[in-house]
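Morning F.,

Quick status update on the modeling queue. The single chain you submitted on Monday has been processed. Sequence for confirmation:
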Amino acid sequence: MSTTSTTATYTLSRGEAATSVTVTERGSGRPVLLLHGGAGPQSVSAFAGRLAAATHTRVITPTHPGFGGTARPDSLDSVAELAALYIGLLDELDVVDVTLVGNSFGGWIAAQMALTGSPRVARMVLLNATGIDVPDHPVADVSTRTLPEILQLSFHNAAPFLPSTTLPPNAQAIAAANMTALNVYSGARGTDTGLRARLHDVSASTLVVWGASDRIADISIGQAWADAIPNTAFRLLPDTGHLPHVETPEQVITAIADFLTACPAWEHDYTANTTAAPMDVWTALRDLYTGSSRSDTGDHIEIHGPFAVGTRLTVTPDGADFAVDCVITELLDGHIYAYRSEFNGLYLTSRHTLTELPSGGTQINHHSEIAGPGAEVTGPRLGARITEDRAQTMHDLTAAATRLGRVL
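Structure tokens below.
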């Protein structure tokens, strides 16, 4: 489903000063304020439309003054000032229950907005956010690097994103102006030394999403964000770097969609230990969910594409005359596998986590949850049916893993 976009310019007061902000909107529904990073507004434009269509949200994307060829008043010279400006934008638009989504420097702005305590802000998603100090893990200095060098640091696989020709003079001028504005807002250090200590005051529910291959800001920085903010979940994305919404947008959309439908009305965990090695369990799990094998008491599964995030599955419960469409939402080879389905307006998420035991065996945790309108009534009843054969299917999985180990 495509969405149309509209662009408007708002003049926002800041004390005695006023600033013009260009804002593009896509979609309708729950408001999302999408904040771009140093890569500029064009880095989020395609993603904004996809996010609006996939999550049925109203995605509001401002261009930070000084970026994209826009003017920046001299008095607008810090992240705190920029955050205050965007709180004013939310007031101007009169939106509530807002989800902030910020990439890189945009994540820093989002965190500063959340610290204002504005009642308009309900949730926050940080995508490879910069702005906090983490000892021995500095953010890469991109101010003196060439564009190809920056892109190599920014992507898991930079090849598809490297320009085939030299940027035209106008584009080069805008890129240089973007870098100048970024340096002004970020300051000489490129971080806020006191920000990390203040994050305990953030009350908005938060999701930290991190590209595992980020060489601009490594995983330790993402974990530091998650540790510093209360009520925060951390989600690591494989095969993606500093700009996950550009490189693997479906992974990011899935993570955000899951976050927006969080607070499940029903949850269930089942844990089992096996002497089988983690990779044997992983292979057995992969075979089961690609349809290569089937548990005697389990569901029939048909996969429509590669075993990868975003691939659709058709699951027919054992003995049932109906099928459910699912999509793989998380996959970290040898460690995590999750899929999500929508059924009568409810969202069912199943997640397997494999942890190696000191003995060399594996602990398997299967987590199921149901969320969505009416889930508080339907969830417990439906969940009981879903999990009634969990012990047997877990036994079948561990038995298959053990057989694999013996064969190898």
